[in-house]
Design goal:
This protein is of the alpha/beta class. The chain contains 13 helices and 18 strands. It has a six-stranded mixed beta sheet with strand order 1-2-6-3-7-16, with helices on both faces. Strands 11-12-10-13 form a four-stranded antiparallel beta sheet, with helices on one face. Helix 4 runs parallel beside helix 12. About 40% of the residues are buried. Bound molecules: ligand BES and manganese (II) ion (2 copies). Ligand BES binds next to strand 13.
Length: about 450
């Protein structure tokens, strides 16, 4: 660990705790001021660590924070991306401590302690490592190449304004590689670099039956109940083998070669521990594929929320007029989010029984991304992690989505390096989200080594 990091460890942590106290919930308009406050907090931090040209850019949604340190135009430029917005903390009653009052507690996976707070891992804690890594470099001889920071406040709601911003400021943002920490490692002894992400198609459906709520005795049995209908329709979207039944859904899915499948399945994975951790007796999914494949290289369709009719205390006999669901489909190369949304919409309308109308509203989407491992970018991340973990990281395809990764490739023509330090068990998006202190410090320690190796490899042209 760098001397400067060792000396300033505790301060770094208490600063992060302050950052985590700001409820920067991008989805909820009531928190707009808090989201802006988180951007201002970053702006101030960036000033403190010696970044320059710092600016908080307003957008039609939440602001984007930019900062840079340009040392020499002949040297390569790393663009750091992160997001300071967080998911809503609901359901609040399932948190052991309030989501915006960070506390440190030990856990099985984090015997040295973890910070419990919404955003601690996704992504405030992880992006903050980059600010602190910059501070470390700045105080130990300076950064070895140019660096730019672009931190957004809308990742959790689909990054609606980021592409426009990137196009508009393409000169300012010009870079050779994008580096982000918004993913996980296998465990604290087994480093990994994320080399793939799934894409996303997210839709909301509304099924309407009779023109008003009815007495379920007087009318029950005589008309289609939209909640019953919605359940039937959703149930029919998978067959008995767990395959998705939407015609054409798999058409553009690239099947992995036997060698690639072997590689995916060679990653350390303990099925028993996985089940135990989740409190389930058995895993389940698409037949013919392993859990590792099902959660990374195969597409999915999941109901994220479903409602309709009476859900209050006690019983109310009602035949509801409407039923709703939110459905996410995780996509793999070469599935196209818009095409999948269209296939879903057409199919879902087609399978509606008599007596109901169906409306499908698309939400955000994103392309899947896969990054090669035979590049300077990957090698630099691998060398950096090897230095600090004492072990070469394993390249792993992740199941989550970060749609901006494919956008960066399209707009800037550069690859992204997904060097995250979270654990899959850190409960991101769930109650009791946490981030290990080990992981926070390991990240700060590793990032400067990425800069070092990347700059050196680039100068050698390897
Ligand atoms: N950081 C996550 C994505 C992630 C987490 C990737 C863990 C790999 C491992 C990101 O903030 C996220 O939550 N993305 C959303 C999509 C977005 C469009 C709302 C997701 O994956 O649901
Ligand atoms: Mn994230
Ligand atoms: Mn997230």
């Amino acid at each position: 660990m760098q001397q400067y990091l060792k000396k300033n460890k505790d301060r770094f942590l208490s600063e992060l705790m302050e950052f985590l106290k700001i409820p920067s919930i991008s989805a909820d308009p009531r928190y707009k001021k808090d989201v802006a406050r988180a951007a201002d907090f970053l702006e101030n931090e960036m000033k403190n660590v010696g970044l320059t040209n710092i600016k908080v850019y307003p957008t039609d949604g939440h602001p984007i924070v930019y900062a840079e340190k340009l040392v020499d135009p002949k040297l390569p430029t790393i663009l750091i991306y992160g997001h300071y917005d967080v998911q809503p903390p609901d359901p609040l009653d399932l948190w052991d401590s309030p989501p915006f009052e960070p506390v440190i507690k030990k856990t099985k996976n984090h015997p040295d302690g973890a910070i419990f707070a919404r955003g601690s891992c996704d992504d405030k804690g992880q992006l903050y490592m980059h600010v602190k890594a910059f501070e470390v470099m700045q105080n130990e001889g300076g950064v070895p190449c140019n660096v730019k920071f672009m931190i957004e406040g809308e990742e959790e709601v689909g990054s609606d304004n980021l592409e426009k911003f990137c196009k508009k400021h393409s000169k300012m943002l010009a870079c050779d590689v994008v580096l982000l920490s918004d993913t996980s490692i296998i465990d604290n002894k087994t480093p990994s670099v994320t080399v793939g992400l799934r894409g996303l198609s997210y839709v909301e459906v509304e099924v309407t039956g009779p023109n008003r709520d009815l007495h379920s005795g007087v009318y029950g049995g005589g008309v289609t109940n939209p909640v019953n209908a919605l359940c039937d329709m959703i149930a029919s979207l998978h067959d008995l083998n767990g395959h998705i039944t939407i015609p054409g859904f798999y058409k553009e899915v690239i099947e992995l070669s036997t060698k690639d499948r072997k590689f995916v399945n060679s990653a350390p994975f303990d099925l028993k521990a996985y089940q135990k951790e989740l409190g389930i007796e058995s895993v389940n999914g698409e037949s013919g594929y392993t859990t590792l494949e099902r959660t990374s290289t195969r597409p999915t369709l999941d109901v994220n929320g479903i409602w309709g009719g009476y859900i209050g205390e006690g019983a109310k006999t009602v035949l509801p007029s409407k039923a709703y669901a939110k459905i996410s489909m995780r996509l793999v190369p070469d599935q196209h989010p818009d095409k999948i949304t269209k296939l879903f919409t057409d199919h879902f309308k087609k399978i509606a029984p008599k007596g109901v109308k169906v409306k499908v509203t698309p939400h955000h989407g994103g392309f899947p991304a896969v990054t090669p491992t035979n590049t300077i970018e990957y090698k630099a991340a691998s060398l950096a992690m090897k230095d600090t973990f004492g072990k070469e990281p394993i390249p792993v395809r992740g199941g989550g989505s970060i749609p901006i990764v494919s956008m960066f490739e399209k707009v800037f023509g550069v690859k992204s390096v997904l060097m995250g330090f979270g654990l899959d068990t850190d409960d991101i998006h769930s109650p009791n989200e946490h981030y290990g202190l080990f992981n926070f410090y390991k990240g700060i320690e590793t990032i400067p080594l990425f800069y070092k190796h990347y700059t050196a490899l680039r100068s050698k042209g390897k």
